[in-house]
Design a protein that fits this description.
heterodimer; A: about 700 residues; Phenylalanyl-tRNA Synthetase, Chain B, domain 1; Phenylalanyl-tRNA Synthetase, Chain B, domain 3; 20 helices; B: about 375 residues; alpha+beta; two-stranded antiparallel ribbon; 12 helices; rod-shaped
């Protein structure tokens, strides 16, 4: 919103401050001046203002002048409303309010024999030409400009009708089903029975409080004018405006509450300017009011205000004297309130509220006004006393452990979109048909609440590869959504994606690409943070239909902990990789953290380290391809030899000298006792047991 | 090892003795100076000090024992000197370890870069969220969270945005499909702010409340350099008896100093939020120019950072439906909220908000 300081100052006695200081003082009191532009010698400045939506009363020159008057304790000049004497009318112009819930006041003034023409500076206080030029406000005609002038001056919407196009008189009513109205923007609108209209005895003339009608608009040929200044109920205007997709200056003001008392004043301002180019007034101002709405606005009951309450809410001031009864009285009086001493024990005053401040309704609203005009920065900085112990979220530690593990493994944390396409939702939803669509998505590609973090992860991995960043390691900790449009469930999840080289950079050693078992290692380390012995990974044949469709069926694994599936990971399915133009094999996975977080974090516990020499033995095994490491692993575990403290695969390799479907595996075993040095016979016995066990499992010792 | 035998001593006069021992001394020194490996040192030790065949044993056996009685003493003295020399040379050889030449052969290029095991970087939003949360944790605030999909009631109505209120226009909302037939307050939407968690917390817990709420929020806004439909907020709520506007000021002044440095100043402006009254916007003195005015603060010396205010009694009235202790006549409180992206962009010099959500390794790697 644009404001001229030249116009502001016209409403105030000489101000002791310059435009920059005035801007600063207004801004610190919530009437924010965002920019100041000098308009040249004698023209003052243009303020670019940002007024909060609750302060519609201050979105005009007089409203801001009122704020300045309150700040500096000055007397505000009243708006000039003196009009030439009226010619008598045969009878008052006919105005009827049918929609008494929606129109509180309607004033009509008849002007005869006016001359429609160009606007100029008509008289002191009506510098239409000068002000409009400075504001870059387009001039249209003296009649339309007069209504715009009143709007810019005091924020009351008015409308000028070509009186001769009105049949019979004015009726403010709801539209009838199927009625049509061509509005000033040239659009022919079909009205809704809920729409509020200003009509004559034959048809609707205007969308009340929103926009005038085409048929009754002022033209160069207009001779006689009806000036409307009214008060419409906020919700009625809001609904009408919304239904027709309109947002006008008038609707903006009425929706937020106009000044019930302003209509006659605005009507006088418009009439005075129009008559400056000739013409006469016919009859008195017709002023129809609805008592029920008048009682809710201009005649509101006073609000009780206690000084103790002001202090209880606002606290300590920098100034020792602080906020006194005199401070409260001065601030509120300057803002247009009337204060009467209260007889109540709990209140010092009964405050009668100004008609233009419908945002003030309660004691707290008055306290805010006191704080605002007194100055927020004159309050001290104090700290409340301590309350109670601080509680962390129950899963905060678990989440931190997960994050730390992935960071340590060289994965960067990322945050992806909360939304995905319907196709991606169908592909990745852990529970099919449990995805939730949005009613007004940002785009078709973002039409669903993500049921999985995988789509976002794949998009980020692809984004990197397409930007020629070849080494990608990302994870996201985020919320996934399931359920229905009736009830949406939210769960925490983890996704990770990786492609390219391992996170090790050395010019001396070859860098190898990250692969399935690297990612599996990260998952294992992650699970090892939690208290559980029962962790395993498995895989299903494609016909089981259990493996998520986004995973390569033979290069992926399900993660199970304590009997519960906590996630899936592996190589992205080649079909999906091709669809996303990904040439490198991408590793991707998702863990359901809500299930993982049910387990407590592992608590470290120390045990004594044996001081007796460990003995290491290697077994070179040959296995058919059908026998997985897990079989050997289980066979050795089943031996349950306490002195067999560790066993692991040291190497897996294929050798031309072996059969076509065989591979070689080097098994490293460590024997150690806590209480003695192992004897040779014992070792020989353990060795024999291991050989027997792996033999039964299907392996043979390599000769 | 076999040593070359030492010559027989034919004369025991002083000059003959000196000559004989000097020859041995020279041999020891020459031998010691050529030692280049631990093996060679060991060989030198055996050559001279070997118990069965060492040169010194030979000297002892053949020169000392064969000496006539009158020459025993001078031979013995010279033998002792020689033995000490050999031991000294041996000690020196053992202490020095391998020769410089041997070491030089093992030289490596220490100017090549070290092997780096790359660690991951916490997302700048996570990092900033955690920083903010820990500042308030130190002031006695617990952490609270709430759902990202909210009802109209929690997101708007109980935060004093009545149905049809123009204030709702300021927060363009993404809604879940198919809500038209439901009662307004039950309609599901993506929360536009973290404020609903204020109410969820108060419904669960009578005063006192001190809670800080980090979270993701969404608005139906077009993306540009500083706006994103996805962003994060940290909300705070403090409710107790005798909580005042000056407490709000002091708390946020302290928090801003903790986050941006002790020289930062704050100032408060009247603003409007439906759920607080009085409401304020808070500016901090520009962290780039210290308040002198620069491009970052548009020459004003101030940067707008957060919104706050005293909890509106209408909000307490909603809370009192489940927890009667929220009687606005007896308790009071303040709430505040800040945009995490904006703070992170300022702290780390990020120019495009979209970078937070693109997952670009090059961007994220800067925060390791």
């Amino acid at each position: 919103m644009k404001i001229l300081t030249k116009w502001l100052r016209a409403y105030l006695p000489p101000l002791p401050v310059d435009d920059a200081q005035l801007a600063e003082d207004l801004t610190l009191r919530g009437i924010a001046v965002e920019g100041i532009y000098s308009l040249g010698e004698g023209n003052g400045s243009l303020y670019e203002m940002d007024i909060t939506t609750n302060r519609v009363d201050a979105m005009n020159h007089y409203g801001i002048a009122r704020e300045a008057a309150a700040i500096y304790g000055l007397e505000l000049k009243p708006l000039a409303v003196d009009l030439p004497a009226a010619q008598p009318a045969a009878s008052p112009y006919s105005v009827r309010i049918e929609a008494e819930d929606a129109c509180g006041r309607f004033t009509a003034r008849v002007l005869r024999d006016v001359t429609i023409g160009d606007s100029r500076d008509w008289f002191p206080g009506a510098e239409v030409d000068t002000y409009f030029k400075l504001l870059e406000q387009k001039k249209i005609s003296n009649a339309v400009d007069a209504t715009n002038f009143a709007w810019l001056a005091m924020g009351q919407p008015t409308h000028a009708f070509d009186l001769d196009k009105i049949e019979g008189g004015i009726i403010v009513r709801r539209a009838r089903k199927g009625e049509k109205l061509k509005t000033l923007d040239g659009i022919e609108r079909t009205l809704d029975p809920e729409d509020l209209v200003v009509a004559d005895h034959a048809r609707p003339l205007a969308l009340a409080g929103v926009m005038g009608g085409w048929d009754t608009m002022i033209t160069p040929a207009t001779k006689n004018v009806l000036v409307e200044a009214a008060w419409f109920e906020p919700m009625a205007v809001r609904r009408t405006a919304r239904r027709h997709g309109l947002h006008t200056d008038a609707s903006h003001r009425f929706e937020r509450g106009a000044d019930f008392a302003a209509a006659p004043v605005a009507s006088a301002i418009v009439s005075r300017i129009l008559l400056a180019n000739g013409g006469t007034i016919e009859g008195d101002l017709v002023d129809v009011r609805v008592p029920a709405l008048e009682a809710r606005t201009v005649q509101r009951a006073p609000v009780a205000l206690a000084l103790s309450e002001v202090h209880r809410i606002l606290g300590t001031t920098v100034d020792k004297e602080g906020i006194t009864a005199a401070t409260v009285e001065n601030v509120l009086t300057a803002l247009g309130c009337t204060l009467a001493s209260s007889r109540s024990e709990h209140a010092a005053w009964q405050v009668t509220l100004p008609s233009w401040r419908l945002d003030i309704e309660r004691e707290i609203d008055l306290i805010e006004e006191v704080a605002r005009v007194y100055g927020y920065n004159r309050f001290a900085n104090t700290l409340p006393s301590f309350g109670e112990g601080v509680r962390a979220l129950p899963w905060a530690e678990s989440e931190a452990a997960v994050r730390r593990t992935l960071l340590a493994a060289g994965f960067h944390e990322a945050i992806a979109s909360t939304f995905c396409s319907a196709a991606d939702a169908a592909l990745t939803a852990p529970q099919p048909a449990q995805s939730v669509p949005l009613g007004n998505p940002l785009s078709e590609e973002a039409g669903m609440l993500r049921p999985s973090l995988v789509p976002g992860m794949l998009a980020m991995v692809a984004g990197n590869l397409h930007r020629d960043v070849s080494d990608v390691r990302l994870f996201e900790l985020g919320t996934v959504f399931s359920g229905t449009t009736e009830k949406v469930d939210e769960r925490p999840a983890l996704a990770f994606g990786a492609v390219g080289a391992l996170p090790e950079q050395s010019p001396l050693h070859p860098v190898r690409p990250i692969e399935f078992h690297d990612v599996k290692g990260v998952v294992e380390q992650l699970l090892a943070r939690f208290q559980s012995r029962a962790v395993y990974f498995d895989r299903f044949p494609p016909e089981a239909g259990l493996t998520p469709a986004w995973l390569h069926p033979y290069r992926s694994a399900r993660v199970v902990i304590e009997g519960s599936t906590v996630g899936w990971f592996g190589q992205l399915h080649p079909t999906e990789a091709a669809a996303r133009k990904l040439k490198e094999p991408v590793l991707v996975g998702e863990l359901y953290l809500d299930r993982l977080y049910k387990l407590p974090l592992r608590k470290p516990a120390a045990r004594d380290i044996s001081r007796f020499q460990p003995v290491r033995r290697d077994f070179s095994l040959v296995l058919p391809d059908t026998i997985a490491w897990e079989t050997i692993d289980h066979a050795i575990a089943a031996l349950q030899i306490p002195e067999l403290v560790e066993w692991r695969v040291r190497e897996v390799f294929r050798d031309k000298r072996l059969g076509a479907h065989e591979y070689s595996l080097l098994l490293g075993v460590t024997f150690q006792a806590a209480d003695r040095t192992l004897r040779e016979e014992e070792l020989q016995s353990f060795h024999a047991k291991v050989v027997e066990a792996v033999g039964k499992a299907g392996a043979r010792l390599r000769s | 090892m076999t040593n070359e035998a030492i010559p027989n001593l034919t004369a025991f006069d002083e000059a003959a003795l000196d000559q004989a021992f000097a020859a041995l001394e020279r041999q020891a020194r020459d031998g010691a100076s050529a030692l280049s490996s631990p093996e060679a040192v060991e060989a030198f030790r055996l050559q001279w000090l070997g118990r069965k065949q060492g040169l010194l044993k030979d000297v002892s056996d053949r020169w000392l024992k064969a000496a006539p009685p009158a020459a025993k003493k001078p031979v013995g003295e010279r033998f002792k000197v020689l033995k000490e020399l050999v031991e000294t040379l041996l000690d020196a050889a053992l202490g020095a370890g391998p020769s410089d030449a041997a070491l030089a052969a093992e030289a490596i290029d220490i100017t090549l870069p070290g092997t780096r095991r790359l660690t991951g970087a916490e997302h700048p939003i996570t990092r900033t969220l955690n920083e903010i949360v820990s500042v308030f944790a130190a002031l006695g605030y617990s952490v609270g969270v709430g759902p990202e999909v909210e009802t109209d009631f929690y997101n708007f109505e109980c935060m004093n945005f009545p149905p049809g209120h123009p204030a709702r226009d300021t927060q363009d909302t993404l809604v879940v499909a198919g809500q038209e037939r439901r009662a307004q307050r039950d309609r599901l939407l993506l929360r536009t702010h973290t404020s609903p968690v204020q109410m969820r917390t108060m419904e669960q817990q009578p005063p006192p409340v001190r809670i800080v709420i980090p979270g993701k929020v969404h608005r139906n806004d077009a993306q540009d350099a500083t706006h994103s439909p996805i962003f994060h907020q940290v909300e705070g709520l403090c409710v107790d008896t005798n909580i005042t506007f000056s407490d709000l000021k002091g708390t946020l002044d302290h928090a801003m100093k903790a986050l941006f440095g002790s020289s930062v100043k704050t100032r408060f402006f009247p603003s409007f939020f439906p759920f607080t009254e009085p409401s304020a916007d808070v500016q901090i003195s520009c962290i780039f120019c210290g308040g002198k005015g620069c491009r970052k603060c548009k020459q004003s010396g101030w940067i707008e950072l957060l919104g706050c205010g005293m909890v509106d009694p209408a909000v307490f009235a909603f809370a009192a439906e489940k927890q009667p202790a929220y009687d606005p006549k007896k308790i009071s409180g303040f709430a505040f909220g800040m945009g995490v992206e904006r703070i992170a962009m300022m702290k780390y010099g990020i120019s495009e908000i979209g970078q937070f959500y693109a997952g670009d390794m090059r961007f994220l790697g800067q925060f390791a």
